[in-house]
Known about the structure:
278 residues, alpha/beta, Rossmann fold, Dihydrodipicolinate Reductase, domain 2, 6-stranded parallel sheet
Amino acid sequence: MQLIPIMINGLPGNVAKMIVSHVLRDSRFALVPFSLTGPEIQEAAVEVAGTSIQLVRPDVRAARIGDIKKQCPGLISVDYTHPTAVNGNCEFYCAHGLPFVMGTTGGDRDRLDPAVRASSICAVIAPNMAKQVVGFQAMLAHAADTFPGLFAGYTMTVRESHQKGKADTSGTARAVVHSFNRLGVHFSEDQIEMIRDPEVQKREWGIPEEHLGGHGWHTYTLTSPDRTVTFEFKHNINGRDIYADGTLDAVVFLHQKVARGEKGTVFSMIDVLTGGCS
């Protein structure tokens, strides 16, 4: 079986490191020994599980990407960088013919799809790569399509807790809010309560100390107008491993689409789940 070359961008970040460790253990992939990184990174390379990976800064990536593609033809890029880099990275991938999986949240999401559609590549773009969470989102989207206005009149609170270094509001929370909007709930994204203080997370939320540096806890509470009925939806993730399976399934899915000549198409994780790549 031909291995899929995969370049994990965002090293030396923790999520990127975790994805690399999974790639190294997965017989479907060949890790590309390069990673696009941020302008603030001074290291020339990083080692993960005994494998050295060269870090490519923004000021030299355009000059180096041609050689990287020659060394690793057919590579798929995986982006776990920073919200401020999302749109610039997307434009770079499109300009240089690099199909990609965008796991980074934030940025101007409305610019991503048009950029890919106007390019010669295809991509998987999703606010969450955890397959079970994506399934939960799909259930809510189906409910919104089938029962619009079901929760009209209900009030809602949304609280999401992530590690201190997460700069943006959870993309998953925003997607879930959109589904509840279609279900009749008046609630805006700026009402989402973001928790990033480790002391609050430990003391008030009960998040295990060993997972303060990497977790995603979400609670959505809906209350009826007369306050006699309450619905609560919750998903609590400790660690980051749950994101690896979905990310790598997305890479396989995208590789298959590229092999079939797909161009200018944006896929979601729903497409990945229904595409049978797990």
